[in-house]
Structures are given as C-alpha cells and as structure tokens.
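Repro:
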Amino acid sequence: MLFSLAVSNSWTLRHLDVHNAFLNGRLAETVYMKQPPGYENLAHLGHVCHLQRSLYGLKQAYRAWFKRLHDFLLSAGFSSSKTDVSLFHFTSGSSRVFVLDYVDDIIMMGNDVALVNSLLQRLATAFKIRDLGTPGFFLGIETILVNGGLILSQWRYMTDLLNRFGMVDCKPLATPTAVTQVVTPSSQPCEDPTQYHRIVGALQYLTITRPDLSYAVNRLCQFMHSPTIDHWGLVKRVLRYIKGTLDYGLRVSASSSADIHAFSDSDWAGCPIDRKSTSGYAVFLGSNLISWLSRKQRTMARSSTEAEYKALADVLVEVTWVVSLLQELGLHSGQPSTLWCDNLGATYLCANPVFHARTKHVKIDYHFVRDKVASGDSVVNFVSTKDQLADIFTKPLPGPRFAALRDKLNVVAHQHCA
C-alpha cells in the first residue's frame, strides 16, 4: 500500500540495513551465558556471564532490538502506528516520512527529501546504518523500476525454488491448477511428506508478489497433515507453472485515484471433501492491487447467497483495516469504499432487512456488512461474473480466462537481471 502511495506521489524511497541489529538490543530479562570458549576467566571458571545486551540466537533478541528501535524513533518525533506495529510515521507541516521495519531491514519513504536525509542522519547517530539507496533487493523481493512505477519480482527466489527441488528442466504450463482434476483423498500416501511440507511452505512466501498463485497454494496447504501422491502431482503442476512465468511480477504504477475498491467472490460448496466454499477477494488502492486472499470458509454455506455474503464480510474486514491505517496516516481520500459482488442475492442482503427471516442461521458477526453499508462507509455494487476479478481466487480456471484475470491483477512480465 505504501509503495503504491510512494509511486503515485513521487516520494523518495530509501532502503536501510542495520549492521549487527540484535547486538543493539538491551535485555530486560535476566539471562546468563556460559563463558565462551577462548575467553574464559581462569580465576573464575565456575562463573557465568550476565548478559546486558541481546545476542543472535536468543529468543529475546527480536523483541529487544525492536524495543530499542521503537524507543529511539519515538524520541526522534515519530509516532508508532496502532494499526501496524512495524510502521512509524513522522509529520511536520505538509511533510511526511514513513519507516517500515522488518528486523534489520528498513524502508524509509517520504515526500520531503531534506527531511528524509535529516532523519536518516539522526538514525545513523544511534545505530550503524548502511544506506542502500533506492530499494533494489528487499527480503527476497526485487524492486524493478519501470516507466511510471515499479515491479515487485521474486525471480531469484523462484529460480532457487526450482533448483532446490529439481524442477529446473520441467515443461512449463499455462495455469497452476487443472480445471478437470478433482482433488479427493487418496489411499496412497506421499513418499516424502517432509519434502511436500518444504515446497508448500516455500510457495506461501511466493504469493507475496504472485496473487495468481494464491488459490493453488491455498489448496495445497489444506493437505499438509497427510499429503498423497495426487497432492504431490498438484505441487509439481504449480512448479511447472512457475517455470513458465519466472519473469512475472506485481506491477505498482502511478495512480491518480486513492479510492479503495474491492472485488469479492465465492465458489459455493466447491470442495468435494467437506462441501465448504472458498472465498477470495482483491483490494485495490486506485489502480494498484494491495491485498488479496484465497481461503476456505470455516462453516458450510446453505446457499450461494450465503457463501457470497460471507465472502463480503471477509473482504470488508480487510477494507476496514486498510481504511483505518490510511486514516491514521492522514492519507484517506474520505470516499466510501466500493465492494463489487457478482451475486444479486448477497448484494440485496447487505441493505434489505426483509431478508432477516431467511438468514437467522447466519452468524451475527457476518451482518456487520449491513452496518457498514448503512453508515455510508462502504457501498456494495453488483458486477457481472465475467468482470469479477476475484474469480481467480476461488476456483480453477481455463487458460484464457486465467491469463485475462492475471493481467487485470497487475501481474505482468518484466525484464530481470540474471
């Protein structure tokens, strides 16, 4: 979301690395350590070290470092976000600076270059900071500058993934899931369940920049407890799709609009095992995709309308969180968020209290959608199925349909640096 705002408003972006970050943390707990080999005190061989600062490998190291950084940023005039604990923001008049912290990797961005440099110098007085300039490779994600924006790519990660699991020379496929293949329990267990766990776990991180993989990976995660030979075949199909789309990434382009709109969809009773539905949504800030999800619903829906209504509730939770974060940062446009649903019954249910008698069995927490619509915070509109972008998160799709929706989600090909 912040990348989208930075590109749209031409903000300055800086990638910072903290040298030996954990050694900066001060321990609040009492922790003792054996004297390290080669540094024993011969006069007190039975003594131990009382640690004052955190070390790599300590359970307290992450929290101690973050507290040290948190306290310093607050003393420098930053405010800690209540919506996202890893985000800090600084405001001085019309100037704004944001700091995103991921352990020892930090991204700083703002609309005032002089203020960004000033705060960076102040940060360097407390910690050993390395300024890496414009983000290029951050947490395994490559940031590629293109005309009018940037592309977030995990090309290196995908290449390493294929190398690790011996799929470098596999035949590429156009889609990660087959339309005709039904996933059912098999009597033949997978020969190496641990390998299955490793691959699926690695694929989850890939969905950060590849929303087109969300449905396939979500389906694979449902069989982690007892994978079978059939499930192993599904994993290999996903890897073959990745082989054919190594040069794809998520595009973030300049957008003139800062309005929030989201697409919500559900595949009613799509799972042949438990007949539960799969929800999916895509949240856009202007023209940029900032949040997406593919997830099986926790309870069984008695109708397609109910399944779609639950999916609307899921996306509205996410939209509410995004709106609260933008309001906290003073960047919300003030316009109500727009939700698009391809089920007329669910659309009417959001505003028409006459439907109460038919939905007494629906959990009350799903009905907060009505409250949001009634208060004017959100608007639920109908969209035809062919224009429903969230369709890609709920079911397997044929190649042309899948490729069309993938393009609309801003997953595009790019030129990468080997």
